[in-house]
Amino acid sequence: MKVNPIGKSRKEVLIIPYYYYTHYSIFCDLYDQIIKNEWNPSFVSIKGNKELDTINFPYVQKLNETKKKVININLLPTNEKSTLLEKASRLISIFRNFRRLKLFIKEAKPEIIILGTDLGGIYIRRIQDIAKNRKIKICIFQNTLFLPTLYRKDIAPQYPFYILQFLWICGLKRTFAFSSDIPGTYIQNSYVFPLGKKSLKIIADTGKAPNYIHMAINSSVDLNPQYTSQKRQQIVNSFFNANKLCREDILLTYFTETLQEVHGIEYLKSMNEMLYAVFNKLPSNFRVIIKFHPRETQEIISHFKNTFIGKRYLFFEDIAPNELIISSHISIAKCSAVLINSILLKTPILSINTIQSNNELIIPFPESFICNDSKTILDLITSITNRNENSIIQTNKIIEEWIITNFENNIQGQASKKAIDILNEIC
Hints:
The protein is α/β, with parallel strands linked by helices. The chain has helices at residues 20-36, 50-65, 84-108, 122-133, 161-169, 173-177, 197-204, 223-226, 229-242, 260-263, 265-279, 298-307, 321-327, 338-344, 374-385, 389-407, 415-426; strands at 12-16, 40-47, 70-74, 112-115, 137-141, 191-193, 250-255, 286-291, 313-316, 330-333, 349-352, 370-371.
């Protein structure tokens, strides 16, 4: 550990997630390690986007409750406009917000800025422009699956030619129109902490120098060592008691993931109808928990509640995903990153892939956990929850092989500490 000499100021570190829910746990771990390293970390909450502010609010509130330092930056709202005059007004507001960000970073004097993503939106990219000009180190911690450009429509909005020319003159064309979907590519000398070996290879194939890529020290890989047998049992007991569940109940947790935004509402409806039919074929002691994604609208939440009807079903909006994973016998989703956490926590998964579109995922799920139709789903649920010794051994073997294949031998419970060691080297 580097110790600051007497009289020398401690290094300032800004931690800036985009969506707090994707990085809450790993950034809290990093925050604690940074404190131990005798640096000054601060979370930064960028306010001004009503939808994003609403999604991030409960996580920022938790940070405040746990006495972690949070700095709020209040930006001018910049909602989409229709008329030419309104669009000009929006652009002026964005430029004024750029100035606020520049003044904030100038006053904060950070040596390192830690990001959850370097790809978007424009304020995250502008922060990197400012950091690059001020020679501030940028570190990106990937904690989500790679998704194809289809999922990243917001990153490269289409601008008229005259707007692009204006932005080019202002030196901001890249800030507004950057279109890559690969982490670490916005600023070439940013440091990337990828999630998995395949992710590392894709980033390396962009030509990024090896010393800027650090494999498998994202603290997501520390999930299992964090939970001792005793702690797991406490979580399970607490969850079962709080929800008046019987010890004989078998819990299946279905994590929603805003699929309607990508594949359309009809796809979501047909998938839910299929799952409802499958779940209702299971014995009565099989309970289904539906955990809503933080970005699900009330309309979509109502759709789920009107589809999954019966005493078998429980619905949750605000609950720690890892507690649900540990309490569950199986985690179910299409291609949510929560399935990665599930496997790392040694909970079997079902990846529902009825349109066979998961081949673009940066960390492929085990083939034996992927379901393409209702029969496969029902058979796999029955097989995994069959508590005979052979079934348990086979399931555990699949999980262990997947972890080794994707994360090598880095699952030692020290990922956050390793990250700090590298930050020490960087500085």
